[in-house]
Fold:
Amino acid sequence: MPGKLVVFEGVEGCGKSTQLKRLQAALQGSDRLQQIQQQGVVPEVLTTREPGGTALGLGLRRLLLGYQGEAPMVSRAELLLYAADRAQHVEEVIRPALAAGSWVLCDRYIDSTVAYQGYGRGLDLALIEQLNQVATGGLVPDLTLWLQLDAAAGLARTRQRGAADRIEQADLAFHQRVQRGFEALAQQHPGRIVAIDGAVDADTVAAKIFAVVNRCLEQWYAPSLMV
Ligand code: T5A
Structure:
């Protein structure tokens, strides 16, 4: 049985990385997953991220987040670098893991490109959809957990952490457009994208996510595996 791709999305500082690690730990300790694993299904729960889920991607991540050239990076170059990172990531990491039956928990994926480069930078949404298709070969997440948080609140969290990267440094209006992008995506894909309130404490967010994922486990695996 092929694995499952679960993606975390949202504005800067919405808590994706925190919750991705917590979900991995919760799943690994879960009786339900162990039952399924005993049937030889779902060998592993892997975590990965974009940009930077491969060696090539790490180089691209450094460029994307740290570039300080005299001329600013143009939006189309930025778009293509994210697409290159994703193409390598899907081919090298995600598809093989899914083929082995694993669960892949991924920090950002196709919706981030729509929200940041489409809504944020103003690039053509149809072009981004085509490029996402090229980069992924049509691989769509089984579930996308969108941590809903006001852009200003998310930036305030990241700023407590120290120096801002090239994208975090963009003005608040940019991040608010990104936030609207995620809102629009959630309306367009209600079956795939589940909104989770990211403004509450991390324990409450984790409990909500685990409940959503447990419901998916029941739907995705045959009743015979769930006894
Ligand atoms: N990007 C990415 C694009 O523009 N296009 C694309 O196609 C893709 C794939 C990636 C950047 O690239 C852009 C988006 C990003 O700008 P990144 O460093 O991976 O760069 O940035 P983020 O994905 O935004 O990661 P962050 O670490 O900034 O945010 P997270 O992962 O959402 O948040 P997290 O968990 O690290 O938490 C941030 C802070 O908040 C606290 C944490 O302790 C931490 O200090 N926190 C909470 N505080 C209060 N309540 C809660 N519930 C909290 N949860 C976490």
